[in-house]
Amino acid sequence: MNINVIYVEPMAEGWSLRQDLADNHQVFSSGAKAEDAALRLAARLAEAGQASEVRVYLRGGELGGRFACPAA
Description:
Blueprint: E1 4-10, E2 15-19, E3 25-28, H1 31-47, E4 52-57, E5 63-69
Parallel strand pairs: 1-4
Antiparallel strand pairs: 1-2, 2-3, 4-5
């Protein structure tokens, strides 16, 4: 089973949300907004039967948090 990894990462101006299984990304003005969107996306994917993991990176590049959303 493929797990969709969703990344929240800092950018020079704002925060990026991107996924392994999609070719696009979204940009947010704050890390909190990007993290909230990532968690909502992971929940929707889980409801649709797709397991996901959200990885939130800090400005220094270190992993700040990891959240698993198993498929429903």
